[in-house]
Design goal:
Distance between the termini: 24 Å
Shape: globular
Strand order of the largest sheet: 1-2
CATH class: Mainly Alpha
CATH architecture: Orthogonal Bundle
CATH superfamily: Farnesyl Diphosphate Synthase
Number of domains: 1
Largest sheet: 2 strands, antiparallel
Structural class: mainly alpha
Number of helices: 16
Order of helices and strands: HHHHEEHHHHHHHHHHHH
Strand content: under 5%
CATH topology: Farnesyl Diphosphate Synthase
Radius of gyration: 22 Å
Helix content: over 70%
Length: 384
């Protein structure tokens, strides 16, 4: 079993155990709250565990031992590995919370091939014959589900930092663990701030674009990518794993130099899939980003090539939640014919190459560098 596979199995098990342990707390308050455990379990049973993988390999890149396969590890080494698994699990819960809230904001119907959380609560409302609007109930309930997942993420990170400080005695080793714990906590806090304001920037662009200068739209779309996705999808997990082991500043700098451009490439690929992706592969309807009116780099590049009249028609259609298959196909053709999709492919290649060059020159452990290079290929060349 590879390290990555072993880590994924541990995280999957940790997720299942955590929800199972928290479900009795919910049910002890009210039996109806079992729904939160059920919906959370379903949502977290899917996903590619990219953030957990980057966290693990960030840790391995500054650690000279594979504790996952070590049967004779010291107590402190075992504590650190247990902390790492908790941290990886916490990142997956944080990601799930972000997805729930993102789907509400975007009015998305599906996530990972299932109805989005707010749509599931809407259906619950209808099935039970509740009073009021099903959509209002669905939105309100899913907001709270996302908040609960955030709270659970925080709980898991707290457990991770407690595990890191495990063991008896005081001295240099304990002081180093305390410094690593503080640095990890600060990094996690920074990540939460960045992704939250990044989400706001995304909302801002969807609403403010008509009153902005045309020349600003591309740079603002790039800013959204950095703060809404690139940092928390790749850079922050890498750095969190490294911080947990007490990485040096040069190592942290190297991971950021690799992680940020790779995170940008990751999101650019996501943007292409949001317009052209196969629904059976992505778990979301094809062209969903067009119905949602996402003002992405892809859209900014497309608009730069259009005549005034074509741009006006394009803008009128973009963001219409009732777009039919023919209108989606027309928008897709406009984007393709503009050359914007090809340009985004070039940007993905450019950012991925920048990331790999930074990785090759980094003072990180060679086994981890090989795995990170493989992960880079996987996330930038995916079709789901």
């Amino acid at each position: 079993m590879t390290e990555s596979t072993h880590l994924t199995k541990l995280v999957d098990s940790n997720i299942a155990n955590f929800i199972t342990e928290r479900e009795p707390i919910l049910v002890s308050i009210a039996s109806e709250l079992a729904t939160f455990a059920d919906f959370s379990r379903d949502l977290l049973s899917g996903g590619k565990r990219f953030r957990a993988q980057f966290c693990y390999w960030g840790w391995r890149s500054v650690s000279d031992a594979d504790f996952a396969a070590d049967r004779g590890a010291s107590e402190r080494a075992e504590n650190e590995f247990a902390a790492l698994v908790e941290l990886c699990t916490g990142l997956e819960f944080f990601h799930a919370a972000a997805l729930v809230h993102d789907d509400i904001i975007d009015k998305s119907d599906t996530r990972r091939g299932r109805p989005a959380a707010h749509r599931r609560f809407e259906e619950l409302h209808r099935e039970r014959g509740f009073t009021g609007q099903a959509s209002d109930f669905g939105t309100s309930s899913a907001i709270l589900m996302g908040d609960l997942l955030l709270a659970w993420s925080e709980e898991l990170v707290g457990q991770a930092l407690h595990e890191l400080g495990g063991g008896d005695g005081v001295g240099a080793v304990e002081a180093a663990a305390a410094r690593a714990s503080t640095a990890t906590r600060l990094e996690f806090n920074r990540m939460r701030t960045e992704v939250t304001v990044g989400q706001y920037l995304d909302i801002l662009e969807e609403n403010a674009w008509p009153v902005l200068a045309e020349g600003e739209l591309l740079s603002r779309a790039e800013r959204v990518i950095v703060y809404k996705s690139a940092k928390y999808s790749v850079e922050a997990p890498l750095v969190l794993g490294a911080r947990l082991h007490g990485a040096k500043s040069a190592q942290i700098g190297a991971l950021r130099a690799f992680g940020l451009p790779l995170g940008i490439a990751f999101q650019l690929r996501d943007d292409l899939l949001g317009v052209f992706g196969d629904a059976e592969r992505t778990g979301k309807p094809s062209g969903d980003d067009l119905r949602e009116g996402k003002r992405t780099v892809l859209i900014a590049l497309t608009r730069q090539t259009l005549s005034s009249s074509s741009k006006r028609i394009f803008d009128e259609l973009l963001g219409d939640p009732d777009l039919g298959p023919e209108q989606i196909s027309m928008l897709q053709a406009t984007i393709s014919d503009s050359g914007a999709a090809d340009r985004v492919e070039e940007l993905i290649t450019q950012h991925a190459e920048d990331a790999l060059h930074a990785l090759a020159a980094s003072p990180l452990a060679e086994p981890a560098k090989l795995q990170l290079a493989a992960l880079a290929t996987r996330i930038t060349q995916r079709d789901t």
